[in-house]
Design a protein that fits this description.
Layout lengths: L14 H15 L10 H8 L30 E2 L11 E3 H17 L7 H18 L49 H7 L14 H12 L9 H11 L3 H15 L2 E4 L72 E6 L5 E4 L9 E6 L9 E7 L5 E2 L5 E5 L5 E3 L3 E2 L5 E9 L5 E10 L5 E4 L5 E3 L10 E6 L2 E2 L4 E7 L14 E2 L5 E2 L1 E5 L5 E3 L10 E9 L4 E8 L5
Parallel strand pairs: 1-3, 2-3, 5-13, 15-24
Antiparallel strand pairs: 4-6, 6-10, 7-9, 7-12, 8-11, 12-13, 14-16, 16-17, 16-22, 18-21, 18-23, 19-20, 23-24
Helix pairs in contact: 1-8, 2-7, 3-4, 3-6, 4-8
Length: about 550
């Protein structure tokens, strides 16, 4: 949360009352009431988030308290094709808007159960940095200069000592919130993303920061289409009820309509002055000038002293009573994870497994439990992948407590590996499945040509025999093939006359064991004819039972 921008709110500052009053007015005219008790810490633990020591992604540093105008856009939804018209506050810089929508699509593909709306990212981005200072980013989405919050030194803000050696925030004493989504370095170390594919996780890049913010908000089993889950997610970002109300106001505003504006043309909070430099320290409030009380003349006659009226000492106010923490009902507490009837996981190299991995979550009473986040992962030396080329995928259980992993496809590596399903944060439960991949086995052997094979008695066949072994049309290398000169197809005994091969010593042989090469191709050795004319049969067989017979003719050449 860049300290140089906008009206900023410190925890405990008097501006909270102003913000609350303004939000109340806004809510009465256009937005649903959104306040929610400060329950983020407990929610994070239950949801499996990994918050920083200050229990907030931003370190609870200051943020913009400007509220959206009371006249909201009149077109629901948003479109990049809308002209730059209507409320200027509804305009979002092009690169920033693209980053929010990209994050929504990415998370929908990996954690669809979260249902993250890009408008929530836009609301947080507006409150945190004024949409990256009105969209002042380069072609790759990186801010022209870092956006830094004040030093989190415990003086008005959280106390967070340096965790990154100043790598992100330039401060080797205390941490500062960094970038358009204002992550503190310790949180970025866990949640940072490389959304633009440049090989770096940069909190100053709007694409990286937006995706990281989305994944942070979706931690655990949150479903952001549910109001209480959305509130908890926002509170985990900055643990302040006023912050939640402000973000909620912008979220409702953007849901009513937005339009795209050029980068750098976004509306900044009213008192930013358009600065693009990063502060080295947080702004220091200027103390009010000392005033000299006006001189007064002493009265000519001292006034009569009237004794003060007797007063009754105020009754001491009892300290507020803190309600005990709410304990979830046993039916809502995750208890166990089990195999939900997954069959044998076997596949041939390069093909899909016929079974899909299934798991079932149960509560502490043994009943199926919905909305439990389950992570499926491939373990071991394997090139098998889930749909989309993923080795890990996280999904939530349905109403019957079950969840099914995406289809699994074998790679070229054969052998066994493991698939694990893991759920739970405090005491994770793991189910392990064994999967195996077998090599392709040729189901067909065929000639690559169809030319007739003939030779004169006592001569050699001029044309070589070439064959190919395949499995479902794909060549299978290293297939064992036995070539035998047989008497006939009905009684396939080895023939003792007619065509023959030669062994290493040049002696006639009529049976050879051979192996196919790359792509299943095999060229047989030269074949020779003895002095006996006639029609003969060469049979090729594989270990899997594929068979091919080839006709060989020994006849004198025509006169």
């Amino acid at each position: 949360m860049a300290a140089q921008f906008g009206r900023r709110l410190r925890r405990g500052a008097t501006t909270t009352a102003v913000a609350a009053a303004a939000v109340a007015a806004l809510s009465a005219s256009q937005a649903p009431a959104a306040p929610h008790p400060d329950s983020a810490t407990g929610d994070q633990a239950a949801a499996g988030a990994t918050p920083s020591g200050d229990s907030a992604a931003t370190g609870n540093s200051p943020y913009h308290t400007d509220l959206p105008p009371l006249n909201t856009p009149n077109k629901p939804g948003a479109s990049v094709n809308l002209p730059v018209t209507g409320s200027a506050e509804a305009g979002i810089p092009a690169s920033v808007l693209a980053a929010y929508k990209q994050a929504e699509r990415e998370i929908a593909g990996t954690d669809a159960a979260c249902r993250l709306p890009w408008q929530l990212l836009a609301a947080i981005g507006k409150v945190e940095s004024g949409q990256a200072r009105g969209g002042k980013v380069d072609a790759n989405g990186t801010t022209f200069s870092p956006i830094l919050g004040p030093a989190l030194n415990g003086q008005g803000f959280a106390l967070i000592k340096d965790t990154d050696g100043g790598a992100y925030d330039g401060d080797s004493t205390h941490d500062r919130a960094v970038g358009p989504m204002q992550f503190i370095p310790s949180t970025w170390a866990t949640w940072g993303q490389d959304a633009n594919g440049d090989g770096r996780k940069d909190p100053n890049n709007i694409h990286d920061a937006a995706l990281a913010a989305g994944r942070y908000l979706c931690a655990g089993t949150r479903d952001l289409s549910i109001a209480t889950d959305l509130d908890r997610a926002v509170l985990s970002y900055n643990h302040s009820t006023e912050y939640l109300r402000t973000v909620r106001s912008w979220f409702d505003y953007y849901n009513r309509g937005t339009h795209e504006v050029p980068d750098g043309a976004g509306v900044l909070p009213v008192d930013t002055g358009g600065s693009t430099t990063s502060p080295s320290t947080s702004p220091t409030p200027t103390p009010p000038a000392a005033t000299t009380p006006p001189a007064t003349s002493p009265p000519a006659t001292p006034p009569a002293t009237t004794p003060p009226p007797a007063t009754t000492p105020p009754k001491p106010t009892p300290p507020p009573t803190t309600p005990p923490p709410t304990t979830p009902a046993p039916g809502q507490v995750f208890g166990s994870l089990e195999n939900a009837g997954t069959g044998p996981l076997t596949a041939t190299a390069g093909e899909a497994f016929t079974q899909r991995v299934k798991a079932r979550a149960r509560n502490t009473l043994g009943a199926p439990l919905a909305r439990i986040s389950v992570t499926f992962a491939l373990v071991g030396d394997t090139d098998a992948r889930f749909t989309g080329g993923k080795k890990t995928v996280t999904l939530a259980t349905g109403a019957d407590g079950t969840v099914t992993a995406p289809a699994l496809t074998a790679g070229e590596k054969t052998g066994t590996f493991k698939v694990t399903a893991v759920a739970g944060t405090t005491k994770p439960r793991t189910v392990t499945y064994t999967a195996s991949v077998t090599a392709r086995v040729a189901d067909t052997v065929a000639r690559t040509g169809d030319k007739a094979l003939t030779a004169a008695p006592g001569a050699e066949f001029t044309d070589r025999v070439e064959v190919r072994t395949t499995y479902k049309g794909t060549g299978v290398a290293d297939t064992a093939v036995t070539a035998t000169m047989i008497t006939d197809a009905e009684t396939p005994a080895e023939n003792d006359k007619g065509p023959y091969f030669k062994d290493a010593d040049g002696e006639p042989v009529r049976t050879l064991d051979l192996t196919t090469g790359a792509d299943g191709l095999l060229t047989l050795p030269k074949i020779y004819a003895d002095e006996t004319a006639g029609t003969y049969t060469l049979r090729l067989t594989t270990a899997s039972g594929a068979t091919l017979t080839i006709e060989l003719k020994v006849e004198a050449p025509a006169a």
